[in-house]
Amino acid sequence: MHLRIRTASTLAVAASFIGLVGLAPPVAASQTPQTPEGKYCTVVVESVKPGEKASRVKSRTCSDDRATAAAARNTARTPLMSWYEHANYGGGSTMVFGDYGPCDLSGYVLNTGLWSRSISLFRTFSSCDGQQATRNDGDGPYLYWGYDTPYVGDFANDDIYSFWIYNLP
Predict the structure, then answer these.
(1) Is residue 47 part of a domain?
(2) Type and span of the H or E element at 15
(3) What is the pLDDT of residues 54-109, one digit of tens each?
(4) How many CB atoms lie within 10 A of CB 56?
(5) Which CATH number do you get for residue 70?
(6) 20 CB contacts (<8 Å, ≥6 apart)?
(7) What are phi and psi for residue 56, nearest 5 degrees?
(8) Structural domain count of the chain
């Protein structure tokens, strides 16, 4: 008898909890950021220094306004790489500039930071025709070459932790 009462009580509490959850307002799509730092970002990096694993970020400017991001891009140095959130160059984007000129054989190592779960495609510039991507779980490197990668592939979509970009010999 006690088991039936306890089971009935447990079911009643569970049912009331489910009812309360059902009344909670849904999260609006506008409350979820489309990109981690703003829709359009500009990042300026240094080349990798001896003993360091990645290029240091000298500055980062992000905005939901394309004109503000474009103004920051006009003051930046050498264009290196752009990341895009969605296929066909849609959604947010980040433009990475180098403060030490175009890619050479040692190149730049770029941690994608908060963009690590957002990159679907990328472009490179300024002799950065070799690219190696590493996924968030450390798997890789995944090799790309050329200047335009319209899709990183199902295995790396929204899952890139870092890029090494360099000039192929």
Answers:
(1) yes
(2) helix 2-23
(3) 999 998 888 888 777 777 665 668 999 999 999 888 899 999 999 888 999 999 99
(4) 13
(5) 2.60.20.10
(6) none
(7) -75, 140
(8) 1
- What's the domain range around 43? 38-166
Predicted local distance difference test score (pLDDT) of residue 16: 35
Cα–Cα dist 9/33, whole Å: 41
CA–CA gap between residue 96 and residue 73 (Å, rounded): 9
Type of residue numbered 54: A
Question: Cα(36)–Cα(7) distance, rounded to whole angstroms?
Answer: 45
- Within-domain flag for 57: yes
Is residue 84 within 8 A of residue 31, CB to CB? The reply is no
Give per-residue pLDDT as tens, 12-44. Answer: 433 333 333 333 333 332 333 334 457 899 899
Residue 2 included in any domain: no
Q: Which two tokens stand for residue 54?
A: 């990645």
**Residue 124: its H or E element:** strand 121-124
Query: What predicted TM-score, i.e. pTM, was given to this entire model?
Result: 0.73
DSSP calls for 40-99: EEEEEEPPPPTT-SSPPEEEEEEES-HHHHHHHHHT--EEEEEEEEEGGGEEEEEEEEET
Is the residue at 44 inside a domain? Answer: yes
